[in-house]
């Protein structure tokens, strides 16, 4: 090959013959054929490695060359490869890294098209879990699309993160023009070389394709000093380029990408390794970890890095436990004179962990770290000792009888054995404990199935219990700590207890077969369960299981419903109610149901529930959604009433009347106006249309609903009931009470939630931001902890997540933040709230009827409107201030009393425009219209009251 397009330099400083062969074969397998592989061997390369390199050269003599510079330095090897390269572009790989099939072609085409000197693409690395690979998360924004930048500052992630350690190539002419070399005095020279090259070359092309895979698992502890020095030099390059702001970002990324993961690995390291690594960190990290960057990390992460910087190996280990087990109190926290909570070693802003909220939880609710310090096996008995952490603000009752016991519980089961703790020695920062347990006689498993047992400790002060796992470093126990076992089915099912530390860092025991009888028995059991008849029996059992699952599947049930159940006669007076797909007993279906009950109509009412019947009336007939009883009830019901939509695949019986109360007026586009729906195929749109055509009545509360929802779902005029929403009758009644009697006393719900009268109530109810799928936990845009810190003395924040989501709330002072997402009826929460904070939720249309303050917290308003579409300009018609940032929201709440008068007229106009049909009698009007045949004519309301 005279002049290849690509020279791939493979440095064989580490890795064996197999890794070298895999890397070279990936080069030879490129779809771009003009590619050469340069294998650079270190001076001390073993014979097997040299043999593998020679074999590859003989296989492809024109495309594989071996370079032997007579040095062992990785940087020197790479420089020797650069010197020997003949290709237009040069790419450097470590042994074991593999090029994707079209990697060189993608890089070469991008370089040729853009005339870039540096072309970079994605890469992935091993995770340490077998052959699994993962791309660094920061690659996503960098390589969202292929593009060309004139200077690397237009793609700052190239220097902020270690993006150019692999997966990029350089034009050889640019290498020679700028005399680019790897620093031979730097062990982590690859970290510096990429940013240095990006800073001096001209045009840079970014390719969104993956270039390299199987990069080695990152191991910052292996050469921490070299990694820190490389980081320092990259920072010097950025400062020399006048990019101090990028240097700050680089500092933050270095903490997140290298030092925090290093802290997390401490429980897996041996004690000597932890001490050695901490000593190295104490030598090289001071001056490399700016405090402003450190303060941007979450509390426990920055604590771990600070302790690593101090060389405190035991403190880093403790912080690592807290990182790996979220919510665990791993150290004896103390409260400073300033009222802040500090990790041991404070007061220090970096060690301030107040925002974790541990100080707000009592002893029984805290997850305390119980660190196992000794495990010694002595025949049938085992000595265990440890220390339970105790924060300064709480602990067991000093007047109560303090007892404790160890609990050995079978994994994924209910069986447990107890052993009392012999010695408890409480002090100001924790409880030291020790005990000797006769493990052989205490722990009596059956044998074949219950082979793994977890150990935890229960502390009891007579009124409160605290349960904690036994945390330990992974080298605390080993083969020398085995104990004999005595299973109930005999020693042939297992004869030895082997303690070990789980991946979650707590103590567990495993029943093993160490002696010949037990090993022989296990081999026989294995044979008996794996020879042909046993395999056939398992296949048959799996087939029967699949058949059973099919009989329980929704598809099968829907087919039976459509083929057979719809033939059943309709049961006169039967009504099936459902609210938000069975998740709650609330909204307009509840209001209709309660109106029916109040008037004593002869109707047989059935409610569906999705997961739990909790919160539904005790005397209600309940059926679980998608159960056979549910399908039977739907097939025989004379009326269907819901606010969301019964399952799309279930047709409505011919004699059934379907009342769709709906769940809110529309700001975002709905139905066939949605982009998502417009992009669906014809059968999908037809299914939606068929589901909507089941509606016989559809409630609207304003002309806006008629122009939006009715049109978006293509509803005929005859289906519309202009009554307003029955759920809003309670809001209009609450407003009338406010005007006549004032706001106090508050509704009974306030006492149930523990809300004091002197605090106003703010209800935060954000909209649903996901798409079709399962319920998921969502991080709130509003920082509840910051709200509690600023307004905790004057406001209580009620958080109401969307019914398809769940809120993830931080710990806050008692009474300042309350999660009411599981409360069934949102109307009760609206009537209780003094202020509503929302974004695009339809709840704002209902709350406006109360004529109370509304604040819209919409930091992503423009992006949301562009993505989802909207029916009007929210800023133009907003019934209250629109806050784009959290600080704007807090400012609006702080001056709410003064500024609310400015929005009273707008709020009244908003309520009239979007709730013009709500008059407080919607439930009565709906019942009179829909259930007319079951009403005594002498008690029927006039036609005008029906709102038609």
Describe the structure.
The protein is α/β, with parallel strands linked by helices and 948 residues long. The chain is 35% helix and 21% strand. It is built from 34 helices and 40 strands. The strands form seven sheets. Strands 15, 16, 17, 18, 19, 20, 21, 22, 23, 24 and 25 form an eleven-stranded mixed sheet that branches. Strands 1, 2, 3, 4, 5, 6, 7, 8, 9 and 10 form a ten-stranded mixed sheet that branches. A seven-stranded parallel sheet has the order 28-27-26-29-30-31-32, with helices on both faces. A hairpin with a 2-residue loop joins strand 15 (370-378) and strand 16. The longest helix has 21 residues, at 244-264. It is globular. Residues 941-948 have low confidence and may be disordered.
What's the short version?
This protein is an alpha/beta fold.
What is the number of beta strands? 40
Sheet-strand content, in percent, reads: 15-25%
Helix content: 25-40%
What best-fitting shape do the alpha-carbon axes yield? globular
- Mean pLDDT equals 91
Tell me the radius of gyration.
Answer: 34 Å
Number of continuous helical runs: 34
Instruction: Tell me the distance between the termini.
Output: 86 Å
Q: Low-confidence stretches at least 5 residues in length (pLDDT < 50)?
A: 941-948
Question: Structural class given helices, strands, pairing?
Answer: alpha/beta
Largest sheet: 11 strands, mixed
Oligomeric nature of the chains: single chain
């Amino acid at each position: 090959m005279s002049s290849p397009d690509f020279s791939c330099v493979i440095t064989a400083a580490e890795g064996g013959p197999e890794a070298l062969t895999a890397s070279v074969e990936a080069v030879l397998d490129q779809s771009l054929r003009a590619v050469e592989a340069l294998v650079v061997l270190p001076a001390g390369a073993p014979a097997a490695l040299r043999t593998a390199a020679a074999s590859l050269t003989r296989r492809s003599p024109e495309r594989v060359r071996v370079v032997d510079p007579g040095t062992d330095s990785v940087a020197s090897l790479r420089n020797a490869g650069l010197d020997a390269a003949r290709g237009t572009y040069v790419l450097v790989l470590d042994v074991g890294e593999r090029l994707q099939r079209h990697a060189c072609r993608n890089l070469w085409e991008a370089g040729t098209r853009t005339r870039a000197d540096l072309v970079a693409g994605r890469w992935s690395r091993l995770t340490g879990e077998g052959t699994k690979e993962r791309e660094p998360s920061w690659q996503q924004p960098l390589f969202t699309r292929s593009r060309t930048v004139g200077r690397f500052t237009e793609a700052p992630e190239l220097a902020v993160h270690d993006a150019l350690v692999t997966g990029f190539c350089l034009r050889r002419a640019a290498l020679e023009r700028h005399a680019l070399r790897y620093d031979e005095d730097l062990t982590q020279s690859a970290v510096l070389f990429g940013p240095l090259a990006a800073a001096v070359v001209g045009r840079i092309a970014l390719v969104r394709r993956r270039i390299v895979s199987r990069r080695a698992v990152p191991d910052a502890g292996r050469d921490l000093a070299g990694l820190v020095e490389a980081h320092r030099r990259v920072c010097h390059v950025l400062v020399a380029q006048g990019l101090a702001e990028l240097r700050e970002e680089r500092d933050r990324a270095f903490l997140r990408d290298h030092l925090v993961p290093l802290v997390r690995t401490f429980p897996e390291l041996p004690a000597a390794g932890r001490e050695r690594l901490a000593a190295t960190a104490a030598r090289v990290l001071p001056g490399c970890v700016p405090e402003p960057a450190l303060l941007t990390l979450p509390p426990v992460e920055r604590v771990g890095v600070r302790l690593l910087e101090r060389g405190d190996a035991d403190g880093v280990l403790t912080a690592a436990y807290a990182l790996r087990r979220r919510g665990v109190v791993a150290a004896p926290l103390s409260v400073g004179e300033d009222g802040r909570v500090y990790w041991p070693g404070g007061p220090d802003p970096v060690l301030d962990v107040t925002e974790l909220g541990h100080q707000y939880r009592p002893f029984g609710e805290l997850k305390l770290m119980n660190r196992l310090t000794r495990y010694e096996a002595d025949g049938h008995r085992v000595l265990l000792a440890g220390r339970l952490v105790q924060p300064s603000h709480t602990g067991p009752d000093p007047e109560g009888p303090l007892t404790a016991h160890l609990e050995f519980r079978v994994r994924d089961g209910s069986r447990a054995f107890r052993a009392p703790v012999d010695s408890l020695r409480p002090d100001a920062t924790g409880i030291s404990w020790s005990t000797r347990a006769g493990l052989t006689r205490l722990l009596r498993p059956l044998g074949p199935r219950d082979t793994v047992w977890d150990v935890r400790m229960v502390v009891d002060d007579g009124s409160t219990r605290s349960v904690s796992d036994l945390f330990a470093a992974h080298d605390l126990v080993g083969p020398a700590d085995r104990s004999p076992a005595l299973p109930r089915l005999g020693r042939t099912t297992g004869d030895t207890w082997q303690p070990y530390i789980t991946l979650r860092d707590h103590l567990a025991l495993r029943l093993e077969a160490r002696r010949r009888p037990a090993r022989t028995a296990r081999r026989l059991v294995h044979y008996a369960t794996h020879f042909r008849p046993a395999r056939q029996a398992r296949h048959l059992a799996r087939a029967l299981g699949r058949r059973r699952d099919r009989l329980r599947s929704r598809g099968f049930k829907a087919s039976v419903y459509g083929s057979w159940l719809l033939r059943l006669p309709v049961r006169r007076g039967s009504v099936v109610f459902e609210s938000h797909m069975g998740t709650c007993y609330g909204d307009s279906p509840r209001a209709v149901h309660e109106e029916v009950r109040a008037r004593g109509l002869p109707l047989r009412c059935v409610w569906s529930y999705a997961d739990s019947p909790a919160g539904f009336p005790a005397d209600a007939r309940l059926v679980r959604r998608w159960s056979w009883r549910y399908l039977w009830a739907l097939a025989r019901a004379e009326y269907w009433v819901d606010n969301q939509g019964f399952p799309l695949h279930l047709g409505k019986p011919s004699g059934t009347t379907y009342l769709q109360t709906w769940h809110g007026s529309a700001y975002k586009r709905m139905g066939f106006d949605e982009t998502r729906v417009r992009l669906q195929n014809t059968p999908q749109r037809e299914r939606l249309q068929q589901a909507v055509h089941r509606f016989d009545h559809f409630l609207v509360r304003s002309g806006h609903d008629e122009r939006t929802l009715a049109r978006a779902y293509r509803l005929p005029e005859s289906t519309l009931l202009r009554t307003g929403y029955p759920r809003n009758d309670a809001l209009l009644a609450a407003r009338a009470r406010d005007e006549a009697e004032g706001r106090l006393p508050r509704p009974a719900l306030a006492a149930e939630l523990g809300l004091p009268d002197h605090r106003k109530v703010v209800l935060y109810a954000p909209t649903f931001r996901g798409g079709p799928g399962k319920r998921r936990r969502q991080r709130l845009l509003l920082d509840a902890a910051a709200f509690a810190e600023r307004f905790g003395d004057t406001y209580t924040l009620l958080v109401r997540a969307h019914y398809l989501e769940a809120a993830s709330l931080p710990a806050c002072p008692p009474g300042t933040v309350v999660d009411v997402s599981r409360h069934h009826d949102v109307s009760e929460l609206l009537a209780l709230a003094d202020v509503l904070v929302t974004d695009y939720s339809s709840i704002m249309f209902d709350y406006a009827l109360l004529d109370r303050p509304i604040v819209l917290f919409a930091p992503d308003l423009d992006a949301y409107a562009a993505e989802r579409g909207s029916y009007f300009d929210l800023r133009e018609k907003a019934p209250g201030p629109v806050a784009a940032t959290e600080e704007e929201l807090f400012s609006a709440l702080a001056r709410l009393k003064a500024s609310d008068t400015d929005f009273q007229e707008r709020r009244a106009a908003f309520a009239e425009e979007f709730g013009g049909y709500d008059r407080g009698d919607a439930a009565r009007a709906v019942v009179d219209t829909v259930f007319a045949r079951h009403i005594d004519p002498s008690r029927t309301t006039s036609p005008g009251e029906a709102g038609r």
